[in-house]
Design brief:
The protein is an alpha/beta fold. Helix content is 43%, strand content 17%. An eight-stranded parallel sheet has the order 7-6-5-4-3-2-1-8. Helix 1 packs parallel to helix 3 (44-53), helix 2 crosses helix 3 (44-53) and helix 4 (69-79) runs parallel beside helix 5 (92-105). The chain is globular, with a radius of gyration of 16 Å.
Length: 234
Amino acid sequence: MKPIVQISLDLTNIDEALKTAALAIRAGVDWLEAGTPLILAEGLHGVRALRASFPGIPIVADLKTMDGGYLEAEMMAQAGATHVVVMARAHEETIKCVVKAGRDHNVKVMGDNLGCPDMVAGAKMLEDLGCDYVIHHIGYDERRGLAAAGQRMPSPLDQLREVVQAVKIPVQAVGGLTLEQAIQCPQYGAPLVVLGAPLTVDADAFKTADGDLEGSLRLICEAVHSQVVPGFSA
């Protein structure tokens, strides 16, 4: 599997999300993510707008489903999403429902292990229940809260190799990575590289970053796409 670059559109209005998405596609980004803030602010309208503007581009709907799994996945699929996200901390019946909806509506299911007491076991469970991808995720509040308490801020890289080795499906690492760390993820065996804060958005204001974003994204995409992922055939 060749490395894939995904941009997280963690913005709160459709116009800005569409402008950032257009810039990202020009720069070589492969997948667009309707981030949770965008879905909260704009709902299905945000996903539909992305689909209308970018036909043929994979769109991840990061709804972080915890219940009502079939309906939520079905609605996102009908709005144009190609990938939906369900949480490992949801009941396993919810995960099964999302997986069934994915099969019925031809969308891929990404299982997110955020908050699992055992992140590796959580990833393996998601695979066993039929998810197509694992999102190995250290949460925003967790990172900031521990840092504010004077503790070491956890990183997805801490256990990324273990997660990759535990499953046979593709893995992406999310949560507080620097750009340099995100670019290195394919060398850990994780082919799905997610770009969000701090490159594309401000972590507090959720606004598009200033500066030559398109030029920076192009260089990053070239660096990611040039890699061969250990354990995956090119």
